Amino acid sequence: MIKCSISDVKQYEGQEVLIKGWLYNKRSSGKIQFLQLRDGSGFIQAIVEKSRVSPELFELCEHLTQESSINVVGRVRSDKRAPSGYEMDVIDVVVNQLTEDYPIALKEHGVEFLMDNRHLWIRTERQSAILRIRHEIIKSAMEFLNNHGFIKADAPIITPATCEGTTDLFEIDYFGESAYLSQTGQLYAEACAMALGKVYTLGPAFRAEKSKTRRHLIEFWMLEPEVAYLEHEGNLELQEKLVSYIVESVLKNRILELKAIGRDISALEEIKIPFERMSYDDAIKTLKNNNFDIEWGDDFGSPEETFLANLYKKPLFITEYPKHCKAFYMQPNPNRPEVVLCDDLLAPEGYGEIIGGSQRIHDYDLMVQRLEEENLPMDIYKWYLDLRKYGSVPHSGFGLGIERTVAWICGLDHIRETIPFPRMLYRVTP
Ligand code: 4AD
Ligand code: MG
């Protein structure tokens, strides 16, 4: 007997296979039962025809309940109407566990109820499709970087200092001393770039932001490439190549999942390099011309980002923000020191910022000055200053927010569906 996963049934047309999975749903029309099976790799309809199976097997199938774990033996048959193109005719079923009183019926439920049952909610077709697409995004991003000579160099989660501002830090007791959960792996990625040239970190980031929005998680994952001898312009090119590769891979390898969640595929097909670009100065002009109450020097909120991004079908880089809007480590434009060589990449369709990146200050004295201006403790950054002391070079990098990217590529209304177990303001369970 061939044991196969649902995603592989196309290789076994006409053959008998064994699928180990769960009953997702069931319909019956008296003489025929339609079992919808899932096994983690996909979904398939299995047909039980009264005239073709034993009375015992037919009866057993009648008593199967949603989410019972079962082994199903059946013959694979192509069927144009099936989303995957295949169905199977059931030959035998073995029940592993008959589920009773499954709490999540396949109908509309309130969000709080679903969030309380997130551990079960992820079994649904829609949620599991999103998580498969999330996997494809992470896999393809790493594949792109690995193929371009990047070394994965992981950053610590427990850190002694802040990087992205002091207001949203999670403090922990580190054997009697204060330490913090990492907001970003960047500072460590910079050190690794000086050792290894091209590196990336991929890990969780923590921000105790008291914002309850569709775009914010308290714990999220960030992919952070960092490259020695790379300047601002090259940094933008790296970002657009990476993001277009990710979208291309999802379209190529997860089209069934995109269809299952009803994503507008044509919008994703627009995502080709080069991406759109606009300076912060021009963004302010555009916003003012469109009746936004905003002045040069103000940061953008999500209404501004959404408006700007909606001008285009492709992602939009906003470049060179005022220095005071951004983190201490960003390199000023040498011709205009009031702005920094940075970018936010805004996804189209109103998804807002998915990347924040910049060229980093590589001059020792300037870095000391910026740390002082921000009142950051010099002793804790001594090692970071060493990078500016011993063979310092221009370097650049960025952080791609995994969940924001998943929300955009999947076309989701809310970031809570982009990660198996979201951590949000007022929610740490399950
Ligand atoms: O723009 P941010 O804060 O940049 C950094 O942390 C840099 N140190 C990265 C670097 O240059 N290596 O965050 C980067 C991205 C954002 O564009 C967004 O996609 C995501 O991380 N992000 C969040 N995602 C979900 N919830 C939050 N609270 C997020 N905060 C940032
Ligand atoms: Mg940012």
Automatic annotation (TrEMBL):
One of its GO terms (molecular function) is nucleic acid binding. It is an enzyme of class 6 (ligase). InterPro entries: Aa-tRNA-synt_II, aa-tRNA-synth_II, aa-tRNA-synth_II/BPL/LPL, Asn-tRNA-ligase, Asp/Asn-tRNA-synth_IIb, NA-bd_OB-fold, NA-bd_OB_tRNA. It is found in: Cytoplasm. Keywords: Aminoacyl-tRNA synthetase, ATP-binding, Cytoplasm, Ligase, Nucleotide-binding, Protein biosynthesis. It catalyses: tRNA(Asn) + L-asparagine + ATP = L-asparaginyl-tRNA(Asn) + AMP + diphosphate + H(+). Its EC number is 6.1.1.22. Pfam families: tRNA-synt_2, tRNA_anti-codon. Homodimer. HAMAP family: Asn_tRNA_synth. Belongs to the class-II aminoacyl-tRNA synthetase family. This is Asparagine--tRNA ligase. It comes from Calorimonas adulescens.
